[in-house]
Amino acid sequence: QVILVESGGGLVQAGGSLTLSCVASGFDFGLYAMSWYRQRPGMEREYVGKINAVGSAVYRDSVKDRFTISRDDGKNTLYLQMRNLKPEDTAKYFCHAYVAVGWGTNPTDYWGQGTQVTVSP
């Protein structure tokens, strides 16, 4: 059973920093790319960034110079370091994995429950 559990959200002032974590279980974490998404109030869920199995990350343009995605395969944990936060970063942040569990199965999307980040002006 794939389980993703995010933590680390909270309230922060504009210009501040937060680091989110996502602990994964139920699959071989080190073999898979992992992603962060967010859902801002009244908007569709959107892609934030992704890190592949060898640690190379890509980001959406609006966060590219402020957010850093990293992973610790020994701890089955994905991180999202957020700096210089802006009010428009206010959202619920979700960890995402697209993995195949079990021999011969197709990959499936898995999501955590999300963690809320609120950035005050």
Return the average pLDDT rounded to an integer.
Answer: 96
Major beta-sheet overview: 7 strands, mixed
In terms of DSSP E residues, the strand content is over 45%
Name the helicity range. Answer: under 10%
Low-confidence stretches: none
| N- to C-terminal distance | 40 Å
What's the helix-strand series?
Answer: EEEEEEEEEEE
Q: What shape does the CA trace take?
A: elongated
3D architecture notes:
- The structure is a single chain.
- This protein is an all-beta fold and 121 residues long.
- Helix content is 0%, strand content 53%.
- The protein has strands at 3-7, 10-13, 18-25, 34-39, 45-51, 57-59, 67-72, 77-82, 91-99, 108-111, 115-120.
- Strands 2, 4, 5, 6, 9, 10 and 11 form a seven-stranded mixed sheet that branches. Strands 1-3-8-7 form a four-stranded antiparallel sheet, with no helix packed on it.
- The radius of gyration is 14 Å and the shape is elongated.
- It starts with a strand and ends with a strand.
- The mean pLDDT is 96.
